[in-house]
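task queued by scheduler; priority normal; single chain, no ligands, no partner chains; default sampling; output format set to structure tokens
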Amino acid sequence: MWTALIATVLALSSPNAFAEAPARAMPGVVDAAQLQQISKTFVRIAERITPAVVGISTSRTLHPSSEHDESGYFRWFFDTPSHHPEGQQQEEGVGSGVLVSADGLIVTNAHVIEGAERIRITLSDRRAFDAVVVGVDAKTDVAVLRAEATGLPWVPFGDSASLRPGELVLAVGNPFGLVQTVTMGIVSAVGRQGVGIADYEDFIQTDAAINPGNSGGAMVNTRGELIGINTAIFTQSGGYEGIGFAIPAGMAKMVTRNLIERGKVVRGWLGVSIQEVTPPLVEPFGLDAPKGALVTDVMADSPAENAGLQRGDIVLQVDGHAITRLSELRLMVANLPVGTHVDLKVHRERKPLHLQVKLGELPHEEAPVQVTATATEIAPTRGKNKRLLSGLKVGDIDGEAVRRYRLQAPADGVVVHQVAAGSAASLAGILPGDIVLEVARTPVTRKSEFDRVLRQADRDSALLLLLSRRGRAMYVGVSP
């Protein structure tokens, strides 16, 4: 199989391959010397990289109340054998790391060393050193360690931004404790976001065989450069199923530099809460397709407020780069330097608008805020003569409603008491305890206003509601 594949790759690498294809058949046999040269290339890469990939072992004391969630499709790449003899509760973990300097600087995953009381690294020549934590950035799952040693083998960061699907890569790590394991595959995809592993995601997806213990190991290109830090796998069995994710080297390098120089990661900040633009919101906002990031709240005295960004705006572009989903906006803004002036193209009241924003610094304690509407499908047609929200029972916000739903009640709005199963409101994701702040972009302060606005709404069009749920605003589209 590999012979035929390499033969095809070599044939396609010819400058005239596509022009000559109709004139002659694709070669079925590759010269043995070419195969040997390719094999030697991978051997040289492995020889260069494996000494720079270290094993990481950690230990920590377990508390009797500790619980470990081993469920879910995404499994972290490190084994955690636990020892619980009577009178002793110690947990040991193993993973991988990559030396990126000769003086003992190591990049790995934050989850590999989470909660560790002692960290020890082991090189391919069996030398072992204690390591200390330089810094941790849980939002990208990157950690930086340092071992007190010099003259160590190391690997340089490569240009992960230039990666394209189909490129050959090698993965190096310590799966299942099998040290210095090298596997090969291709880049299956780049820019994977919304995976649910970290707050800021821009993963490289690969089919190179990686397993528990590979976490924090190296992904390298055919030039022997570090282009990713292996982080997670998608698995239903707990092992390799051909879908792995790596943090791109560009992100890892930025985080490493910030942790060394500042002790934290400094990120750009707009000061907005955003949600995904789902299909039910396309019609009410006058879009032609689900795209952009919908602003649900603007923080006081934030860069966004100072620039004139408003609730209900949909950010479509940042400096000319299209935003197709909210994770792209968060990542793009976070990666820009504080103080950068950016041009935002927004969709407001069905018209395009450009705003100039000077980015601030993301507060260190603040997690990136997002709100995602629960409805992702358009509700089925229910007939023009039926009230669109007939399955919804609302009331004024009083003391009883505040106690019953534990509301962080705003001054205005109406509270949802009941949502009929199977109704358009239920299919749109509206829940009891939600507070309705707007109907069809019109503020409602009490039930009488809610009823009046609803009577005037176009029953043939999707209805847009602004809700407050647990203190956070979100838009919901209800289709007729």
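post-processing summary
- Residues 7-23, 66-84, 367-386 have pLDDT under 50 and may be disordered.
- The radius of gyration is 27 Å.
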